[in-house]
From TrEMBL:
Family: Belongs to the class-IV pyridoxal-phosphate-dependent aminotransferase family.
Species of provenance: Brevundimonas subvibrioides
Cofactors: pyridoxal 5'-phosphate
Name listed for the protein in its UniProt record: Branched-chain-amino-acid aminotransferase
Gene name of the record: ilvE
Pathway where this protein functions: Amino-acid biosynthesis; L-leucine biosynthesis; L-leucine from 3-methyl-2-oxobutanoate: step 4/4; Amino-acid biosynthesis; L-isoleucine biosynthesis; L-isoleucine from 2-oxobutanoate: step 4/4; Amino-acid biosynthesis; L-valine biosynthesis; L-valine from pyruvate: step 4/4
Length: 292
């Protein structure tokens, strides 16, 4: 299937408070964000005309901007409405939504006190992050070469564009070797997350998931914890050493793009998608589509 470049599509993008034709939503090559990573973003999904956890995403966008030392020029409620309006303008009821906020080209230097904050929102069709047939069996991951950084070296709880470069490098390396994704450790050597999703493990009917004090606490992660607890399943949040993976029977990833995705392999460790991971995948699907 031919790749359709993202800069050459039909439609509209919400850009600094107004709609512009998709192909005209451009910024200058000396934009601060392009050179210094001063950009934050969100990834959201609309199901059946409703954006799931929209306000939580808009609030996180604002928090991420503040962590990078800039303030959005729009309120959370204004961002919420702009996301809805963009989906409506594109005529979509099932879509992926990408709000992004970044510093412009007024200064191209480390200093950015005079740079304007820009906000854009684009939506497009993105049915499944992983191949649906592969997802049913569980995806395969390798260990990433790169580690999530020490929170004293970077704003690790922000959804900041610059923090994703090591994710891109890790996922590219994994895909070249036939894997779907890569599992990352944190700077101390504990299991952290996949390149764009949080991770859960199952041991004797109990779910274990890494502490996210210093990484992104995914909105889908929080939702799945609630779903598990509603099923009466205990969820333990703790540091997890890589060698502990040999003691877990099931594994799955969560994220707005990944939704709930079972895992069959991480490096040398194997898992079998079972009642808990498949049940939560089903529960999440029913919740976001408002079934039952």
């Amino acid at each position: 299937m031919a790749l359709v470049p993202f800069d050459d599509r039909d439609g509209w993008i919400w850009f600094d408070g107004e709609f512009v034709p998709w192909r005209e939503a451009k910024t200058h090559v000396l934009t601060h964000a392009l050179h210094y990573g001063s950009s934050v973003f969100e990834g959201e999904r609309m199901y059946g005309g409703e954006i799931f956890k929209l306000t939580e995403h808009s609030e996180r966008l604002a928090r991420s901007a503040e962590l990078l030392d800039f303030t959005l020029p729009y309120s959370v409620s204004e961002i919420d409405q702009a996301c809805r309006d963009t989906c409506a303008r594109m005529g979509m009821e099932d879509a992926y939504i990408r709000p992004v906020a970044y510093l412009g080209p007024e200064q191209t230097s480390v200093s950015a006190l005079n740079n304007k904050v820009h906000v854009a929102i684009a939506v497009w069709d993105w049915p499944s992050y992983f191949d649906p047939e592969v997802k049913k069996k569980g995806i395969r991951l390798e260990w990433a070469k790169w580690r999530r950084p020490d929170p004293l070296t970077a704003p690790t709880t922000a959804k900041a564009a610059g923090l994703y470069m090591i994710c891109t490098m890790s996922k590219n390396a994994a895909e070249r070797r036939g894997f779907s994704d890569a599992m990352m450790l944190d700077w101390r050597g504990y299991v952290a997350e996949a390149t764009g999703a949080n991770v859960f493990f199952v041991q004797d009917g109990v779910i274990h998931t890494p502490d996210v004090t210093h990484i992104l606490n995914g909105i889908t992660r929080q939702t799945v914890i609630d779903l598990a607890q509603a099923r009466g399943i205990e969820v333990v949040v703790r540091h997890i050493r890589p060698e502990e993976l040999s003691t877990f029977s099931e594994c799955f990833l969560t994220g707005s793009a990944a939704e709930v995705t079972p895992v069959q392999l991480i490096g040398e460790y194997t898992f079998t998608p079972g009642d808990i991971s498949l049940g939560l995948m089903d529960d999440y699907g029913k919740l976001v589509r408002r079934i039952g």
